[in-house]
Amino acid sequence: MSTALAVTSPDHLLAATDRHTPHAHVFSPPDEQPLAEALAQTQALLEQHGYLLTVFPATLPTPFRHRLHTVRSLLESRRIALLPVELPPLACGMLVRQLRQLSLCDFTPGVLGAAARLLTHYLYAGAVLGSVAKLDRVPVAVGSHARSWLPGTQFAVLAAPTPELIRLGTPGSEEGLTGPRFATELTVAPGQLSADWALRSLPARWRVARVHEAPLPRDSAAWWGTAKLTEFVAAIPDVSVLYQLVASVRRDECPGCGLELIGDRCAFCATPLPPAPTASSVPPAPRAPAPRAPSTPPPAPSVAPAAPAAPSAPATSEPVVADPRGIRP
């Protein structure tokens, strides 16, 4: 069985870099689509593919989120995974494109669903903002809030993988934001703010291989707290590298639904893996009672028995993960 991808906005469908990357289904909001139609579409996807991964932003409106859970509940299917992500809108679309690429590989649905959380650690997502007065996704100092009211002030903000904020054009900002230490390509979505810094200065500092332009998602202004912005994301473009990242993580069997997975929680049934036993949690072996000394000692063996060989440690596959955050090696 294959795995289908679904999103909650067409803005999260970035153009594919090759003709082999499959498309993803777009769910409509509940005020635009009757429940019966949403059920029929989801049932058709399950019959055609077998499993369905639905990726949506954590800021999705509550009625829309309830619609997704209602469809899954009415179909009584554990073959539907609902994956909320904390990424900015453009980075959410990039994550979906990477999952679309990996859906053509030989990963099982459980592994592909759990790979979403792993891949977020390799996305460098940010924006150039004209104001941070209403930014609540990244910590902002009081001084930066005050400078937001100065005409012409611009800020470069990194939301993932680690929040950072600098004021452009000031001493000390020459080094810029912390960039990736692996090969990436940069995607820039210009908005109501000049994209020169994101299109020229940032690629040189981050040493990206190529720069692409994309339309700015409609929910970017709400996510960043201002319409004066240009959004960007640096990501690994090579599907073979993405494949190696996912394949290098140890796999387990979900105790709830039996799917193969990576990490510590199943993306389909949300069952957590039990913690790995530690040396301190293993009870000591019972001690055998000391035998009584025989009246006549037994004869000594002519050849001392060889000590049993120590069992070899099982081979493990170390993940190529800089900051696993829950991904179990």
Q: What's the short story on this structure?
A:
The protein has 329 residues and is of the alpha/beta class.
Describe what this molecule looks like in 3D.
The chain has 329 residues and is an alpha/beta fold. It folds into two domains: 137 residues, Rossmann fold (3-Layer(aba) Sandwich), CATH 3.40.50; 112 residues, Hypothetical Protein Tm841, Chain: A,domain 3 (2-Layer Sandwich), CATH 3.30.1180. 26% of the residues lie in helices and 18% in strands. The strands form three sheets. The chain has a six-stranded mixed β-sheet, with helices on both faces. Strand 3, helix 2 and strand 4 form a beta-alpha-beta unit. The C terminus is likely disordered.
Give, in spatial order, the strands making up the sheet with the most strands: 7-6-5-10-8-9
Going by CATH, the architecture of the largest domain would be 3-Layer(aba) Sandwich
CATH class of the largest domain: Alpha Beta
Parts with pLDDT < 50 across at least 5 consecutive residues: 288-329
The assigned structural class equals: alpha/beta
Count the domains: 2
CATH topology group of the largest domain: Rossmann fold
- What percent of residues are in strands? 15-25%
Return the average pLDDT rounded to an integer.
84
Task: Give helix and strand order, one letter per element, not per position.
Answer: EEHEHEHHEHEEEHEHEHEE
**DSSP strand tally:** 12
Instruction: Based on Cα principal axes, name the global outline.
Output: globular
Helix content: 25-40%
Query: How can the largest sheet be summarized?
Result: 6 strands, mixed
